[in-house]
Amino acid sequence: MFQYYFLLGARSLRRNPALTALMVLTLAIGVAASVSTLTILHVMSGNPIPSKSERLFVPQFDNGPLEGYKPGDKPNDEQMSYRDAVNLLNGKGGERRTAIFGVGMALEPERKDLGVFVVRGAATTADYFNMFDAPFLRGQGWAPDADQRGDDVTVLSRKLAEKLFGDADPIGHRVRMGGFDYQVIGVLETWNVLPRYQRLIGGDSAFGDEDDMYIPFATAIRHQVDRNGSTGCLGEVEPGFQGFINSECTWIQFWFETASARDRDTLQSYLNSYTAEQRKLGRLKRNSPNTLYDVMEWLEFNKVVGNDDKLSVWLSFGFLLICLVNTIGLLLAKFSVRASEVGIRRALGASRREIFTQFLIETTVVGLVGGVLGLLLAFGALALIALQSKALASVAQMDWIMLLTTFALAVLSAIIAGLLPTWRACQVTPALQLKSQ
């Protein structure tokens, strides 16, 4: 019976093509508007590393001076000083630890057809790649003892490796960056994790491009590599690079990884013990609470998804509601001209339930056609949004979840819009319709 009603619904679309096209277009536009904004929100608010997001933590404590501080004020920065980063790296908190700061260097390629250009990346530690499940195309990251020695090694992105070496294997080759030669020991596969939670601070925004290269944290310090990121300095800073790293300036992002989410309290206790020890040494005078953020809390804290983004989704669904109201009116007009048909069917023994089922399946057909057109319009809308900037291009991408959501939303919207017109069609009195014929 369902197949029969479905075929009836498909045939009914051809009875009044203009009215049918208007209904489908109205529904498709509403669905496309809501799905395109919902797709962007879906990408922006998604869990970038679901396998371990509850085991990765950013520590935050306040190392600012007492001057101008009031209890309850927000911490000085989301980053930490070099002294704290080194202390935590050498400590025993968590299973893995990494410190990160952005770097930028001029790269002098061996290829004569390439001029000198600037590359941006991260100075970090050996644990970085395993902590964040970085995918390697060739080679591997550096060993932990390379962090201690400050070896001149580097891991390149696939994009940079192909630009410098083409299809050749770059492992073992050297690249000259910032006036020093670095040996290539690994190449990462394209790593478009969104949002870029591990590099929210000091990176190319939450939805920016991936890093070009990575070098050991200690190597960057030894070579005094130029920092590419934000720096906060509230206290006095002595002249020179050594004076800077000895200061309380905050410019390093830090992450812990624990064995399980249950170890969060243990890590919090370790962090509290560390700050208490530093206070005994005359540091961290503000005595503000220490905080740990897991991945999703970190994204929320940094407002990766802003109120404007959420408002856009609500407005788009408001537009969809307006489209549904118009679709209801069109369906009422479509079903009203078929009152005589309903009356004859009722007189021949069809029940109201059968009439209701038939007309509701017809609206489902409208929803399916509207879903196909809405999907095409949504792809077009996302393509136009992607042209606005690189950041928007990275989030204006539809996945299978949103693809299925488009059809589900279109069919559900059509069914909701068809409930009232279908109910009205079921109320036709057979006798009155037969008399009027």
From TrEMBL:
<feature type="domain" description="ABC3 transporter permease C-terminal">
    <location>
        <begin position="315"/>
        <end position="429"/>
    </location>
</feature>
<feature type="domain" description="MacB-like periplasmic core">
    <location>
        <begin position="20"/>
        <end position="256"/>
    </location>
</feature>
<keyword id="KW-0472">Membrane</keyword>
<dbReference type="InterPro" id="IPR003838">
    <property type="entry name" value="ABC3_permease_C"/>
</dbReference>
<dbReference type="GO" id="GO:0005886">
    <property type="term" value="C:plasma membrane"/>
</dbReference>
<feature type="transmembrane region" description="Helical">
    <location>
        <begin position="355"/>
        <end position="388"/>
    </location>
</feature>
<dbReference type="GO" id="GO:0022857">
    <property type="term" value="F:transmembrane transporter activity"/>
</dbReference>
<keyword id="KW-0812">Transmembrane</keyword>
<feature type="transmembrane region" description="Helical">
    <location>
        <begin position="400"/>
        <end position="420"/>
    </location>
</feature>
<keyword id="KW-1133">Transmembrane helix</keyword>
<protein>
    <submittedName>
        <fullName>FtsX-like permease family protein</fullName>
    </submittedName>
</protein>
<feature type="transmembrane region" description="Helical">
    <location>
        <begin position="311"/>
        <end position="335"/>
    </location>
</feature>
<dbReference type="InterPro" id="IPR050250">
    <property type="entry name" value="Macrolide_Exporter_MacB"/>
</dbReference>
<keyword id="KW-1003">Cell membrane</keyword>
<dbReference type="InterPro" id="IPR025857">
    <property type="entry name" value="MacB_PCD"/>
</dbReference>
<dbReference type="Pfam" id="PF12704">
    <property type="entry name" value="MacB_PCD"/>
</dbReference>
<dbReference type="Pfam" id="PF02687">
    <property type="entry name" value="FtsX"/>
</dbReference>
